[in-house]
Amino acid sequence: MAVVQTENKDHVLWLTIDRPEQRNAINDEVLGLLADGIRLAEASSDIRAVVITGAGDRAFCAGGDLKAAAKGDSVFAGSPSKDNGLVALYREAERCNVPIIGRINGHAMGGGLGLLCMCDLAVGVKKIRIGAPEAKVGLFPMIILSYMLRLIPRRKLMEMSLTGEPWDGVKAHEEGLLNSVCDTHEEMDEALNNLITKIVANSPTAIRMGKKAIHAIQDMDLDNAFEYTQLMIEKISNTADAKEGIAAFTEKRAPRWAGN
Global pTM? Predict the structure, then answer.
């Protein structure tokens, strides 16, 4: 059985890490299959969103598989000239203009926190634990720092990384890591479906171009960001979806998106 289950449901590609006995810990095979799925979504005009989750209800992802690493698994290996599996996955996510949503069904630790941070949106439940415990085993959350620094306030990040102590779902929501936090998995799935329904109802062209712009300008200075976004608004205004959206608004009807 594949360690990542892939399913296309109503324009949404679901990627489920299926290693519940290992608390859905990541190894090179998991990372490669997640990257393949994200690449598939980016290449498909039919896919409007990607959902990443874990099998069962105990763990979303427990992070790197330490037992596999002790046997020489290269999940922690990498160099400036060759990305390791986690960085290769991150690069695919950055190239993907389809929204990626994390369904945080259980604990997200270490590399699991990195997967959560990689997602554009995330929903979870209150009882989960989210953290970076690497210092407790002589490591440090090096690779996921690149995402953590973009999402977590610096002093909160330092506390999490230096103490290794986790947050619960409520704290993660308060700090902006979760868009919604729910009491039960049923409520979480309702929130997730509500989010997906709203995304799928909108222009796929606008969403893809918008996500691309957000990634492009996040590290630009203001002058370059202004120049880029002016070019992008002109480009997006000339798409079939923009013309259809304006026509539908004027005619007071639902838009029929062409996806271009």
Answer: 0.94
Tokens of 24: 């859905």
242 Rama class: left (phi>0) / alpha (psi -120 to 50) / beta: alpha
Secondary structure of 31-91 in HEC code, one letter for each residue: HHHHHHHHHHHHHCCCCCEEEEEECCCCEEECCECHHHHHCCCHHHCCECCECCHHHHHHH
Q: Spell out the residues 6+ positions from residue 125 whose beta carbon is closer than 8 angstroms to its own.
A: 104, 105, 169, 181, 182, 183, 184, 185, 187, 188
Which two three-digit tokens encode residue 102?
A: 């994390």
Hey, CA dihedral for 68, 70, 76, 79, is it positive or negative? negative
Per-residue pLDDT tens over the stretch 203-257: 999 999 999 999 999 999 999 999 999 999 999 999 999 999 999 999 999 999 9
Burial track 191-218 (b if 16+ CB lie within 10 A, e otherwise): bbeebbeebbeebbbebbbbbebeeebe
Q: For residue 237, give every residue at least 6 positions away whose Cβ sits within 8 Å of its Cβ, in sequence order, or none.
A: none
| 17 residue type, one letter | I
Closest CA to 68 of 122, 123, 31: 31
